[in-house]
Amino acid sequence: MASKKKRVAEPMTTESDSNESGNDDFDDDEMNDGNEIDTPINEEVQVEFEARMLDDSDFHGVKTLLQQVFLKANVNLSELTNTLVSQNFIGCVIKQMDVPDDDDDDGMDEDDNDAVFGMMSVVNITEKKDLECVQQVRSLLLDNCKACAKDKMSRLSDMLHNPDQHMGLLLSERYLNIPPQISVPMYDSLIKDMEKCQRKQMKYSFARYVMISKTYRMKSASKQKEEPIFFSNSEEELLHEVSELSFTYSVKDDRDTVVDGQWDSDNPMEALRTVLVIPADQLSVAVTRIKAELAST
Fold it and tell me: Which residue windows does the record flag with biased composition (Acidic residues) (predicted)?
């Protein structure tokens, strides 16, 4: 089934530096005593992305993004991904904007333009509490809260088990080279999608959202000193500021690809996950602040 274009996200511009050793394109003044001097090439590459409705072809791309969040956690990601695809009227995936076919681009993989670079959606984990993946997510939240923030567990449990105040699992993930500006149209779109569903009496009216955010901190040699936490998706720090409950747990024993490569024993950073519980009326507030912050950078 072909993807439907939902809305066009803002064009993103990224700068990439590359050292091309063995490059035949160099000037005479780059020669010194017969030796080539590799010179950094600063290239500004403009890449345009668009948001599309999820469909069956996005399964593997979305599941891969979810694996970045859940790592080795006991969560049925196939079922969770299928749930997201089945409710494709909520949220979106981010793909590279279609470009005209070029007969000269021999060797280009047709799947390159269909790759999933990011995704955003929400799952009602109150209504769908009987799904295996949702049960596993709820257990993951409670188990880690009990281990790392026992004083908050009772409150979190009450939130998760309140049938009258639905909680949405907010899922926002992208690859590291995708700039945070892409999150603004994604959040705007998600909020509009939920408003449409609410007008149709669908169960997307939430009292709260819960998000598992990728975070990290520098390892400290002193047990008396706790290093500050940084968010891999920088805009989520503003979601943290409006959250009513949060806690952080370590995933140092899991293989991780957060920030800049795989984590190992020599990495100076500790991989973490920070759980955020966000009041529903604060999501738009946070998105407005994200817009302002990104506009000033």
Answer: 22-36
Contacts of 142 (CB under 8 A, 6+ apart): 153, 156, 157, 160
User: What six digits make up the tokens of 42?
Assistant: 């600063």
For 115-131, write each residue's pLDDT tens digit.
999 999 999 999 999 99
- Whether 40 is covered by a domain: the verdict is no
Cβ 91 vs Cβ 169: under 8 Å: no
- Sign of the torsion angle spanned by Cα atoms 231, 65, 274, 263: negative
Residue 61: give the domain boundaries: 49-97+110-294
What's the domain count of the chain?
Answer: 1
Inside any domain, residue 82: yes
Neighbour count for residue 53 (Cβ, 10 Å): 18
Between CA 87 and CA 105 the distance in angstroms is: 36
pLDDT at position 31: 40
What pTM was computed for the model?
A: 0.81
C-beta separation of 92 from 186 below 8 A: yes
